[in-house]
Amino acid sequence: MQTAAHALVALVALIHVYFLVLEMFLWDTPRGRKAFGTTEEFSERSATLAANQGLYNGFMAAGLVWGLIAGDPVGYQAQIFFLSCLVVAGVYGAATVSRKILYVQAAPAALALAFVLAGAEPVTPPVTDGSRDPRTARTRARLRAALLEACGTRPPDRVAVAEVVRLAGVGRATFYLHYDDLHALALDACAEVVREAVEALHAWDRTPPGPEAPPAELVTLLREVRSGAAVYRSLLGPGGGPLGELLHRELRSRSLDELRRRRPAGSGHDLTASAVAGLFTGVLTDWVHDRTDASPERLAGQVWRMLLAVHAASASHGQSTVTGGAAAPLG
Fold first, then answer.
1. Closest by CA position to 64, among listed 77, 85, 78
2. What is the DSSP letter of 71?
3. Phi, psi at 144, each rounded to 5°
4. What is the pLDDT of residues 222-276, one digit of tens each?
5. First-to-last CA distance in the chain?
6. Three-state DSSP string of 208-226
7. Which of 6, 62, 203, 224 sits at a 20 to 30 Å CA gap from 89?
8. pLDDT digit string (tens) for 131-177?
């Protein structure tokens, strides 16, 4: 569907380039007069007006070409805008000048517009973050899987919406019903991983495991990350990437909530939560980029001991009060 839509948009652009040539350069020639059904006297008198009209057609063609080559969502939005303009102008021209304009301008533009919009799946109720409609869940799952597949070979900032919708088997219009842009999709795709990471670092009841016994869930998580290293390397870019950004935010929030709940009288919880989130996100990023050489089991132990050390240091400076055994890395 995307290939057909692009082909039709390109065809409409070529048609308007042809209009530009006819109106700017061939208007006052036998060929131009034959194309528009004008007389020699009329074409001579209206040549300047026709040249201006041809220039406008050139701008329409340029807008469509921009829509084809620009990245999304700008490219998609540009195609919708310029095709809509051509449809409206064509209908108006057919009503006021010649019915022929309806067939040579409005109809091709309307067909291209229909193909660009094609593929949008009905969503009931309207798509929101909390929507539980099974069709919404299925479509989003396909889009997340498609993005993760694409990120297996290149970073997210080099993946285009066109590739994601092709892999997911949906239309671009459907994509924009669910997500504002690829960044929003990337965050959604990372959400499950982030949830697992946050839970893995809180997988204990009243007393956290000691420094030599990291939670088994943490080891399991790191094994999963290692098995999908190519994807996680893409999502955890040098600056953190979409996964790092979301992981840091959610981990800090959960840590802060746990610290306040378990030790309401303590102080400096915000600093401790920031340190915990930054430490784990930074170490995980370096590990997937092979800057740190460690097995999942060894890394889990090292990270756990570092997190305990963060809390021990904060406690020694009066920032929190640790009771009931080992220091709690996340509250």
1. 78
2. P
3. -65, -45
4. 998 888 787 788 778 766 677 888 889 988 998 888 888 877 666 778 888 899 9
5. 52
6. CCCCCCCCHHHHHHHHHHH
7. 6
8. 556 778 888 999 989 988 888 788 777 888 889 999 998 888 888 88
pTM exceeds 0.70, yes or no: no
Q: Report residue 265 as tokens.
A: 């009288």
Three-state secondary structure of the chain: CHHHHHHHHHHHHHHHHHHHHHHHCCCCCHHHHHHHCCCHHHHHHCHHHHHHHHHHHHHHHHHHHHHHHCCCCHHHHHHHHHHHHHHHHHHHHHHHCCCHHHHHHHHHHHHHHHHHHCCCCCCCCCCCCCCCCHHHHHHHHHHHHHHHHHCCCCCHHHCCHHHHHHHHCCCHHHHHHHCCCHHHHHHHHHHHHHHHHHHHCCCCCCCCCCCCCCCHHHHHHHHHHHHCHHHHHHHCCCCCHHHHHHHHHHHHHHHHHHHHHHCCCCCCHHHHHHHHHHHHHHHHHHHHCCCCCCCHHHHHHHHHHHHHHHHHHHHHCCCCCCCCCCCCCCC
* Chain segment 172-211, per-residue pLDDT in tens: 888 888 888 888 888 888 787 788 888 888 766 556 677 7
Mind giving me the DSSP string for 12-30? HHHHHHHHHHHHHTSTTSH
Residues in the chain: 331
